[in-house]
Amino acid sequence: MSQAPAKATDYDGSGGWFKIYDWGPTFSGGQASWPLRSDYTFNIPKCIKNGEYLLRIQSLAIHNPGSTPQFYISCAQISVSGGTGTASPSSVSIPGAFKATDPGYTANIYNNFKSYTVPGPAPMTC
């Protein structure tokens, strides 16, 4: 998420971004499984300051080892209200928050795939 200085409709996303949630595959019996669904539900942490934000959702296709992952990105303009408004999460710049050498980008799902590290910073906590 990135807080808009005023209206989200006028914001270009050039400010700092912080992560509120991430997930990767689960591993069981030597197999990886991703939570692939047509919709997802997640509550925005209550400590996020009230205001207008851009919300960015990033999904990676990592099925071509040795090449750049395929990025699937969606964004939304949201208004946060009713929270306690005390959080000051550390932020990163986009572009720049992710590197081609991040483990989540270099994973090979066809060879010894027993763990996965989601790229980027850790999600913020209240």
UniProtKB/TrEMBL annotation:
GO molecular function, one term: metal ion binding
The protein's Enzyme Commission number: 1.14.99.56
UniProt keyword annotations, A-Z: Carbohydrate metabolism, Cellulose degradation, Copper, Disulfide bond, Metal-binding, Monooxygenase, Oxidoreductase, Polysaccharide degradation, Secreted, Signal
Gene Ontology biological process: cellulose catabolic process
Primary location class: secreted
Gene3D superfamilies: 2.70.50.70
Cellular component, GO annotation: extracellular region
Residue ranges constituting the Auxiliary Activity family 9 catalytic domain according to the UniProt record: 1-115
Pfam families: AA9 (PF03443)
Catalysed conversion reaction: [(1->4)-beta-D-glucosyl]n+m + reduced acceptor + O2 = 4-dehydro-beta-D-glucosyl-[(1->4)-beta-D-glucosyl]n-1 + [(1->4)-beta-D-glucosyl]m + acceptor + H2O
Keyword DNA repair in annotation: no
Family according to the record: Belongs to the polysaccharide monooxygenase AA9 family.
Name recorded for this polypeptide: lytic cellulose monooxygenase (C4-dehydrogenating)
Natural source organism: Coniochaeta pulveracea
